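[recover] target loaded
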């Protein structure tokens, strides 16, 4: 058992996030990078505890008592990350539109167009900022609220060259064009 060399009678505190054991009297880290090897229990919809080890299982190798209809942690994380990406992109598009004094209708169409492109994964590898900027520019052209390409690039976090590439890719693929262009 670890103890503080300056306060041996002190009751030590465990910081599970950092993995440290700390003396509350002086703040000395008595043990660092501790590994918690205990088992984590989660409850599912069936109200049965399911043992989830903190060690990552190879794909397809789930614990035996996990019901088959419960989505895996990996798929839940992917959905959460996907939703966070869409929210962040929508926030960026709104910020750019605010700087360009665009209407809410244009913003909503640009966000919807971004979601369509992001769902299809056609522009995989391009930054979300460049895709959002290209969508905003495209919708501005469509709704007769023209903004210069350089104006959109000036309020974007992405580089002008990358926004131009994304815009050209969208124009080349008719599936991703808004209907009225």
């Amino acid at each position: 058992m670890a103890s503080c060399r300056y306060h041996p009678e002190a009751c030590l505190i465990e910081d599970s996030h950092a993995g440290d054991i700390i003396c509350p009297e002086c703040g000395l880290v008595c043990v660092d990078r501790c590994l918690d090897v205990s088992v984590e229990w989660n409850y599912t919809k069936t109200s049965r505890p399911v043992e989830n080890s903190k060690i990552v299982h190879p794909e397809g190798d789930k614990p035996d008592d996990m019901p088959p209809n419960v989505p895996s942690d990996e798929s839940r994380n992917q959905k959460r990350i996907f939703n966070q990406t869409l929210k962040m992109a929508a926030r960026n598009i709104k910020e750019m539109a605010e700087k360009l004094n665009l209407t809410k209708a244009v913003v909503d169409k640009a966000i919807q167009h971004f979601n369509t492109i992001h769902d299809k994964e056609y522009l995989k590898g391009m930054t979300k900022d460049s895709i959002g900027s290209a969508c905003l520019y495209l919708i501005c052209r469509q709704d007769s609220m023209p903004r210069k390409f350089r104006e959109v690039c000036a309020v974007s976090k992405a580089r002008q060259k990358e926004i131009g590439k994304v815009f050209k890719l969208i124009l080349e693929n008719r599936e991703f064009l808004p209907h009225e262009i």
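[recover] notes: The chain has three domains: 1-36, 40-70, 73-176.
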